[in-house]
DNA sequence: TTGTTATATTGCAATATTACGATTAATAAT
DNA sequence: ATTATTAATCGTAATATTGCAATATAACAA
């Protein structure tokens, strides 16, 4: 199939999976790290910074933008991409709740 | 391609991506949540709990096991799967560092 | 041994993802 | 107007992922 059966899971489970999927490629991890480091960025920088072709970077940026984690403002011929901090905070809450399931948990069972 | 160019990224970036990828499917999210809830589990439970066929669950369990996040002990005809808490803690550190990049950051740039 | 139960593995079809060359669109500079 | 620059989009090849039926394996029960 290649198609996840999202209908049988909760919205929350699907949302966690969607966020995680966005971080599931090192290029997108690197893009986000760079955006945090620079705190303002144009796409050309990213093509130089990360060693992938321009259309590939553009595609990764699109995915992050669709999720709402980054936003882009057109500035002349270039586009200024940056983190959407509000959205990042929201995502973090969801992911932290998932990651912190282990607190209040005893030792391994087996 | 369909093949990520891992060579051009740092080990850390690749590791974040690997962990995230594991959480990038709602079935694996649901499996982990269930294991935390029950704190001891046999696979049959999971097939009932989650609405996927037995081979599919088995495959998802294998991926989580390969990453080290869960471990399975054979008990008679069934297998007792549970969270590997030590491994989970290690994963959490890595992911938290990534997710918390936003602290010590100013407002949006654009 | 024969059957039963529980899980893993294999094989495969459907779909998704990754990457990039070629092209396009939009603005800026001359 | 022409040309350069930047980034998005299109098309496509290679590979990965998801899901399941069929089958295999392993442990136990009778």
From TrEMBL, chains A, B:
SMART domains: HTH_ARSR
InterPro entries the record matches: ArsR-like_HTH, HTH_ArsR_DNA-bd_dom, HTH_MetalResp_TranReg, WH-like_DNA-bd_sf, WH_DNA-bd_sf
Span of domain HTH arsR-type: 8-103
SUPFAM superfamilies in alphabetical order: Winged helix' DNA-binding domain
Keywords: DNA-binding, Transcription, Transcription regulation
Pfam family, one: HTH_5
GO molecular function (one): DNA binding
Protein name: Transcriptional regulator, ArsR family
Taxonomic classification: Bacteria, Pseudomonadati, Bacteroidota, Flavobacteriia, Flavobacteriales
């Amino acid at each position: 199939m290649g198609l996840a059966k999202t209908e049988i899971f909760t919205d929350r489970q699907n949302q966690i999976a969607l966020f995680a999927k966005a971080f599931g490629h090192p290029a997108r991890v690197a893009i986000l790290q760079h955006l945090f480091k620079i705190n303002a960025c144009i796409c050309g920088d990213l093509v130089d910074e990360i060693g992938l072709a321009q259309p590939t970077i553009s595609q990764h940026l699109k995915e992050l933008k669709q999720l709402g984690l980054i936003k882009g403002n057109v500035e002349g011929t270039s586009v200024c991409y940056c983190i959407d901090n509000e959205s990042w905070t929201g995502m973090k809450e969801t992911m932290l709740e998932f990651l912190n399931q282990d607190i209040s948990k005893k030792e391994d069972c087996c």
